[in-house]
Design a protein that fits this description.
Length: about 300
């Protein structure tokens, strides 16, 4: 069953007690209110972040723009454009039939979807080999200018019409933090659904997942101070090369010496450990098993 988002928000507004919401809105909706938003002045909520508030029928639309986000989106778009143009030039130099060319163009479109919308690609007619040499493309400058105008801007929708712009921004930041937490739980921590039947097992599962997330957050905070630019995921992948292993040595009386050892860290591991102020624990002392006849009993 398909449910329209607008009907859900309407039910939330009319519910008793009322339900408050702050949700993201597709950029396509920006064109519907663009003219009205042009008449609203910008309000600064913090350095590099400005918002516009547009009340609309019991709701308020929040147009936010961020300098950091603008720079990030612009860099991403430029990487996509450069990658797509490079790929199209490579295709022009190939000797391909039309069907082969179309398949490779489809792959390029899937790899660079944002940049593909900014180019007009013309495929030559015919099925002979060498058709790729007739491939042409050009930049759609009006679409590029429109994309540049909307870089770093996003439209929010809320029924918290009596809130100050700073408060709206803080609520949105909290929303992004919650979404990032779920992403970390499913991504870096690889937590998956486990179906329990007992309440205590459900609580234990949630508790262990929460502890793992706390460690993940603590690791991110430590990296931010001591190793900027390094993420928890990259650090864990790096240290995954250090492994634990058990080495068994049989003795003449039928027993075994068991050495629990971790592999020695490489040079880059030692640099990271020193940067973070960590020391690996000492190697465990060896253990010796009982005699075989005692085990048989």
């Amino acid at each position: 069953m398909n449910i329209e988002p607008g009907s859900v928000l309407k039910q939330m507004r009319e519910s008793q007690p009322p339900v408050h919401y702050l949700v993201g809105t597709p950029k396509g909706h920006l064109s519907q209110h663009e003219q009205k938003l042009l008449e609203v002045p910008w309000q600064t909520v913090r350095q590099g972040v400005q918002v516009k508030l547009l009340p609309q029928e019991g709701e308020v639309y929040v147009l936010a723009q961020s300098t950091d986000r603008t720079n990030k989106e612009r860099a991403m778009r430029m990487r996509q454009l450069k990658g797509l143009v490079k790929r199209l030039k490579e295709l022009q130099a190939m000797t391909l039939r039309r069907d082969q060319l179309l398949l490779k163009l489809g792959a390029a479109k899937a790899q660079y979807p944002a940049a593909w919308r900014l180019l007009e690609v013309t495929v030559p007619a015919g099925t002979d080999k060498g058709m790729a040499q007739g491939l042409s493309f050009r930049l759609l400058r009006p679409k590029l200018r429109e994309a540049r105008r909307r870089e770093g801007r996003y439209l929010l929708r809320s029924n918290l019409s009596d809130q100050e712009p700073e408060k709206m921004w803080q609520l949105y930041i909290q929303l992004t933090q919650v979404e990032a937490a779920f992403k970390d739980l499913k991504g870096d921590l690889s937590l998956r659904p486990i179906y329990h039947q007992l309440e205590r097992r459900i609580e234990a599962h949630i508790f262990v997942a929460f502890l793992a997330y706390c460690l993940h957050v603590s690791l991110r905070a430590r990296l931010r101070l001591l190793a900027p630019g390094l993420t928890p995921r990259s650090l864990l992948e790096k240290f995954a090369a250090i492994q634990m292993l058990d080495v068994h040595f049989p003795t003449s009386d039928g027993r075994e010496l068991v050495f629990c050892r971790y592999t020695q860290p490489e040079k880059d591991h030692r640099l990271l450990l020193a940067q973070l102020g960590w020391d690996l624990p000492p190697q465990s002392p060896p253990k010796i098993t009982a005699k075989q006849e005692m085990l048989m009993e």
